[in-house]
UniProtKB/TrEMBL annotation:
Protein name, as recorded: Ldh family oxidoreductase
Lineage: Bacteria, Bacillati, Actinomycetota, Actinomycetes, Micrococcales
InterPro entries, sorted: Mal/L-sulf/L-lact_DH-like_ah, Mal/L-sulf/L-lact_DH-like_NADP, Mal/L-sulfo/L-lacto_DH-like_sf, Malate/L-lactate_DH-like
Keyword rRNA processing recorded: no
SUPFAM superfamilies per record: L-sulfolactate dehydrogenase-like
Length: 351
């Protein structure tokens, strides 16, 4: 890398450093262990962070890991959680996350969910008493890699208003969908809010404004002030319709006993687990038609080639990442060892 100088009157870009995915995995794993997490928790969270980076979801990749580290240190995440998996019906898998991470709960139940879906044609996983779920698309993608059609969703502590409310009443409640195919899954993953909460937090830290329609201030009025938005409430995408989808996701996520969003403890303060829920629906398309994945792929290719619609587009996976030195120092500061590297340099302006 080479240095670039900032234009006159503009702040210099934050310095970054390149890491291979293997280096990032090691750094994340060591950071979780240093924060008190068990080997199983460390492996699960490191894999999830790197998977998000691999798919270009940096906001919920390594940059999101400090939220988990803080949760481990404060007691919001049980550092040695032992998820308990039960199968109350042939096509139903339930997991008590033991106030740990949703990632470890899913890891523990994945094989049982896949087996149930193949046996029954469709199976449902419900997780309770978990920390926030992270990248929902990771769970859906993993199921699609098993040849299953997947829908996943989770709720969060109340951060978002819906039609009729002037303050937060539900979470950002993300949802993901993935289709299997030999060339790799097609997947989309989105919050039911107009934007992710972490983007507003980042804007507040940077002193940046946010677009209209993202949030309300504490008085319930629309705002472009990110700090006021953090003290107020996010807004759903699509107005009333988006709010309905958010509440639908919450109802499904809380089915086995996870907290409703209004009752969940904060994920970024205090020492209590938010005890949230998550669900995954796994469908074996061969129960209906063996050729479904190929028919779906051909149809989606037609949409792309004839109409410019690239649904669940496949992105080229990265083999290395470029992350802010401040983030790497933060991770290393927990006791992990940052990879040796040349002196950090500022990224080019166009990056």
């Amino acid at each position: 890398m080479t240095s670039s100088s900032a234009s006159s009157g503009h702040a210099a870009p934050a310095p970054t450093r390149r890491l291979t995915l293997a280096e990032l995995t090691d750094l994340c794993r060591e950071a979780v262990r240093a924060a008190g997490g068990s080997a199983e928790v460390a492996e699960s969270l490191a894999a999830a962070a790197v998977s998000a980076e691999r798919r270009g979801k940096s906001a919920i990749g390594a940059a999101h890991l400090p939220d988990y580290l803080d949760g481990l240190r404060s007691g919001r995440i049980a550092p040695d959680a032992r998820p308990r998996v039960t199968a109350p019906r042939r096509a139903v898998i339930a997991v008590d996350a033991d106030c740990g991470t949703a990632q470890l709960a899913f890891d523990t139940a994945e094989d049982a969910l896949v087996a149930a879906a193949r046996d029954c044609g469709v199976a449902v996983l419900s997780v309770r008493d978990a920390f926030t779920a992270g990248e929902l698309g990771d769970y859906a993608t993993r199921l699609a890699e098993h040849g299953l059609v997947a829908v996943t969703g989770a709720n969060s502590p109340a951060l978002m208003a819906v039609h009729g409310a002037s303050q937060e009443v539900t979470g950002t409640n993300p949802i993901a969908f993935a289709l299997p195919h030999p060339e790799g899954p097609r997947m989309f993953d989105q919050a039911t809010s107009e934007t992710a909460w972490v983007k507003i937090r980042d804007a507040a830290e940077d002193g940046s404004s946010i677009p209209e329609g993202w949030a309300l201030d504490p008085e319930g009025e629309p705002t472009t002030d990110a700090r006021a938005a953090l003290a107020g409430a996010l807004l759903p995408f699509g107005g009333v319709k988006g709010g309905n989808i958010a509440l639908m996701v919450e109802m499904l996520a809380a089915m086995s006993g996870g907290s409703f969003s209004l009752d969940a403890a904060p994920f970024d303060s205090g020492d209590a687990s938010p005890s949230l829920g998550m669900f995954a629906i796994a469908i074996d398309p061969s129960a209906f038609a063996d050729d479904y994945p190929q028919r779906a792929e051909e149809h989606l290719r037609r949409l792309r080639e004839e109409h410019g619609v690239d649904f669940g587009r496949r992105k080229a996976e990265v083999t290395e990442v470029e992350l802010p030195v401040a983030l790497l120092d933060d991770l290393a500061g927990t006791g992990a060892t940052a990879p040796a590297a040349p002196s950090p340099v500022a990224p080019s302006e166009g990056r």
